[in-house]
Amino acid sequence: MVPPAANANPVPSAGAAELSRLLARVAQGDAAAFQEFYDRTSAKLFGIVLRILTERHEAEDVLQEVYVSVWRKAASFDPARASPITWVATIARNRAIDRLRSRPVRPHVPVENAFDLADDGPAPDAGLVASQDARRLQAALDTLEPRHAAAIRACYFEGATYEELALREAVPVGTLKSWVRRGLMRLRGQLEATQA
Amino acid sequence: MTMSPPEAGPQDERDAMAMDYVLGTTTIFERRAAEARLAKDEDFRAAVAQWQAVLSPLDEDTAPVAPPPRLWAAIAAQVQPAPPLAMAAKTVAAPENAVPWRVLGIGGAVLVAAAVAALLL
Question: B5 touching A, CB under 8 A?
Fold first, then answer.
């Protein structure tokens, strides 16, 4: 496979441009555009929310909040600052994590997994073609200690706290925090280096 | 406790807070504090945006799951009575804008009533 030589700058995909157009119409109160936006994005967002909350009923509830919020806040979406899918995925993650944190008890971690911070890796059917950004990020993650990369992924995908992961890994919270934070700094450094 | 290298300055503190917020590891109180800061601290906003750009490609690793069809009905029902105010005003002036609402199974008359109600509020 030959990487594109001249085209180093990320170009918004056709899908992103279309989603941005739909959001602009949603901001005008266009309900048909809103439905189309939902049709194109809801499976992705439901996957993200369900992965964090694991409980279907709760995930449905949160997804509903997310789209009501998209309807109300579409005017604040700025295509110059984020891709439309990142924008909605961020809303979805934030809502899901808020919900997770509001739970009185957390049935998230099955007991038998409590001491095993296995990196669950990319979902096998997640995307047929990973974007260039996703491949670069994966390559950077692969250079970290596997346990550190797994901790970063567990935080991101499950909304786990440092305290929960420290318990699972049987390490002090400070150690876990430093795995994640230093790991992220390295990731950022590597991404900046490969982008240059 | 917080692991701060000796030379940690305000910039590191900001970066760590942004990182934790984007990663989603924080408590609900820390999340509210981060959101309040987002509203008023431009440097913090930039730091959050930067971490979002770093981490958001991870979303591609999550398999899509189709939500049940009833979910759209619930969403549509929730947004219908409250179209944005500016639009509601326009809809009264130009009834053809009401057409998309029929897609969702709502009559123009109901929409106009909602729009008028919205204007009265």
Answer: no
